[in-house]
Specification:
heterodimer; A: 314 residues; Rossmann fold; 23% strand; B: 276 residues; mainly alpha; MetI-like fold; 12 helices
């Protein structure tokens, strides 16, 4: 059985200390996101650095409390759920397998950690750790080693084994391949896709690599400055992007064609600042299609056919 | 072997030597360190002119065997060093972990306590304590232990702050581990190599401070043979019998140097994660 994640108008505002006598800066990392992640699918979240996609992942994992809104799994609120129970339901795979494994503990202890937290120990742990290591394509002798003795790809496999050892239903992958060599990326992606099929997982896949998202996701949400600006099936989104930001994002993909240079996506040089959100449509300072109305009127998500777009021009 | 490794080995040998000397003091001393013999006052060491073969490092102003007193003095130094490091380490590491891990208000309180401690002059407090409750070994240990924790606290706080943002700590949270598990099993092992250096530094400082306090008459009371007290008692005789001040002085120097060498070596050893 899998789980449906319902994200209901979730916001996360960080207070940033800015000197003894000035008011703290309010950084709106995630600002009113509503999404429904279908059971058993692979759900992609894309966007540029600082758009709030990693913060959203951490909210789903319960690593940060949400400032407002709620996240439900099968109708049960994650905020109200005890941490140990949530651990059996949702597990993470992080970006950098060099910082996501404790350098002073053996692979056995690292993969067995979620079991230890649930009060499982001894032979049962060893048995399940060995089975899990073999499931992710590592030899069980590796259990006695330290992370420093493993390659990047092997480490990421260990991180996946740790995420799956409790048999969770949802795995949140925060850019699981962007720290890896290109040759290893494909192996890890195929492993994730295979495990999803075999274990009936729901994957939440966060990435800025559009090729990867197109390859493994069924549905994609595009985030900009803390909000979801477009949400559609992978096919529809990549075939016919509607939101101007999605179009720019897809146009920014580099081609292997020599001589073409870096594509000009028409976004300008300005960079969005989540502590200082522009009025009206938050994308308007960079939008190539901007109109006067965009500068004043706040955009709301609209349903256009099968997709949800937050742009009045779409 | 690199120079650093040689230094670390020398340090380990010195510290281990002094430690063994301290532990087995009653078995190795040739004379009773408290027995006075007024006929044999200020006898020079056996290798100097006028020395006697049965008093290897000579005798002090009361005719007590200097070598035996030196060995017994190592007990005081090691005891003060270790006890102070344990006491101050417990206080400092606990405070640093609270501030660094919880952050926010807890961190502000911890920083305030550290600042308060830094504004207290050590010798002055020791003076006040001794005049209030009198001097004894316990008083010296407690005074130093309760005052020398700030370096532990500062280093622990900073390193915990660095480690707690790493993904393996986030993974432990997501795995449902308890706070104490995360602090003691995930965070602490990854900062321990910094703390070892602080511990050795603190131990050397404590030993030197005890010597300074004893020299001022605020440390361990006579006739206990502390190295600082030996220096203090010897200062009246240093012009005509210079060895009485040189022997404990050189011992103190060598021990502190050895501790510092050992600390650097341990940091290099523990800091490097094992490679394939």
């Amino acid at each position: 059985m899998s789980a449906t994640i319902e994200i209901r108008d979730v916001a996360k505002i960080f207070r940033q200390f800015s000197g003894m006598f000035s008011a703290p800066r309010m950084v709106r990392a995630v600002d009113g996101v509503s999404l429904t992640v279908p059971a058993g699918g692979c759900f992609g979240i894309v966007g540029e650095s600082g758009c709030g996609k990693s913060t959203l992942a951490r909210l789903i994992l319960g690593l940060h409390p949400a400032s407002s809104g709620d996240i439900l799994v099968d109708g049960r609120s994650l905020m109200a759920m005890p941490r140990r129970e949530r651990a059996r339901l949702i597990q993470p795979v992080f970006q950098d397998p060099f910082s996501s494994l404790n350098p002073r503990r053996t692979i056995h202890d690292i993969v067995g950690l979620p079991l230890a937290a649930q009060g499982i120990s001894g032979k049962e742990t060893t048995k399940r750790v060995h089975a899990m290591l073999e499931r992710v394509g590592l030899r069980s002798e590796m259990a006695g080693r330290l992370p420093a003795q493993l390659s990047g790809g092997q480490r990421q496999r260990v991180a996946i084994a740790r995420a799956l050892v409790l048999g969770p239903r949802i795995v949140v992958c925060d850019e699981p391949t962007s720290a890896l060599d290109v040759s290893v990326q494909a192996q890890i992606l195929n492993l994730l896709a295979e495990l999803r099929r075999d274990m009936g997982l729901t994957l939440v896949f966060i990435s800025h690599n559009l090729a990867v998202v197109e390859h493994i996701c069924d549905e994609v949400a595009v985030m900009y400055l803390g909000r979801v600006v477009e949400h559609a099936s992978t096919d529809a989104l990549f075939r016919a992007p509607t939101h101007p930001y999605t179009r720019a994002l897809l146009a920014s993909v580099l081609t292997p064609e020599p001589g073409l240079g870096i594509p000009d996506v028409g976004l300008g040089d300005s960079y969005p600042d989540p502590a200082n959100v522009p009025p009206g449509c938050r994308f308007h300072p960079r939008c190539p299609m901007v109109t006067d109305v965009c500068r004043t009127e706040i955009q709301v998500p609209r349903r256009v056919g099968e997709r949800v777009v937050e742009c009045m021009l779409a | 072997m690199s120079i650093r490794k040689i230094a670390a080995t020398i340090g380990a040998v010195i510290v281990l030597g002094v430690l063994l000397m301290a532990v087995f003091a009653p078995l190795i001393v040739p004379h009773d360190p408290f027995a006075q013999d007024l006929n044999l006052r200020l006898v020079p060491p056996s290798f100097m002119e006028g020395g006697r073969s049965d008093h290897f490092l000579g005798t002090d102003q009361l005719g007590r065997d200097y070598f035996s007193r030196l060995i017994y003095g190592s007990r005081i130094s090691m005891l003060i060093g270790l006890a102070t490091v344990i006491t101050s380490g417990l206080i400092g590491i606990t405070l640093g972990m609270l501030g660094g891990f919880i952050g926010g208000r807890a961190d502000m309180v911890v920083m305030f306590i550290i600042t308060c401690r830094l504004s207290i002059p050590l010798i002055l407090v020791a003076l006040a304590v001794v005049s209030l409750v009198g001097s004894s070994l316990t008083v010296v240990v407690m005074t130093l232990g309760l005052l020398l924790w700030e370096r532990f606290a500062v280093v622990t706080r900073t390193t915990v702050m660095q480690v707690r943002t790493l993904d393996y700590v986030a993974a432990a949270w997501a795995a449902g581990c308890s706070r104490s598990h995360i602090l003691l099993r995930e965070v602490l092992p990854n900062i321990v190599h910094h703390l070892v250096v602080v511990a050795t530094l603190e131990m050397a400082i404590a030993i030197l401070l005890e010597a300074a306090l004893s020299f001022l008459g605020l440390g361990v009371p006579p006739p206990l043979p502390s190295w600082g007290l030996m220096i203090s008692e010897a200062k009246d005789y240093m012009f005509f019998s210079p060895w009485v001040i040189m022997v404990p002085g050189v011992s103190l120097f060598v021990l502190v140097l050895g501790i510092n060498f050992l600390g650097d070596g341990l940091r290099d050893m523990l800091g490097a994660t094992r490679d394939a």
